[in-house]
Amino acid sequence: xxxxxxxxxxxxxxxxxxxxxxxxxxxxxxxxxxxxxxxxxxxxxxxxxxxxxxxxxxxxxxxxxxxxxxxxxxxxxxxxxxxxxxxxxxxxxxxxxxxxxxxxxxxxxxxxxxxxxxxxxxxxxxxxxxxxxxxxxx
Length: 138
Description:
Number of domains: 2
Structural class: alpha+beta
Order of helices and strands: EEHEEEHEE
């Protein structure tokens, strides 16, 4: 097991890098290091994303989430407590906006033009459109 310090590149609220003791460090440890660098008051106000996955469980290690030395972290600041939207509600709101945009696009008249639209999530997995799923993504 490699326990040498790892420097991870960051974007978003922190443009630069953060160093952790190893990839066995917990998300909580990373969040506290980011809190110090950003001079934030509450570690839970930071959202950390790696490879399209939100690192939400502070007890899990970075390695558990698939973080590697080549990973780039996206850091955002904002309320995540009871005052902020719950993650599921925010996801539903985003999906509803995508559905509305797709509906508006589909209702346009394009005469004889044909379009083939395909979407992928941040992991590169194709997103399925299904009439039986009202939120578009099943």
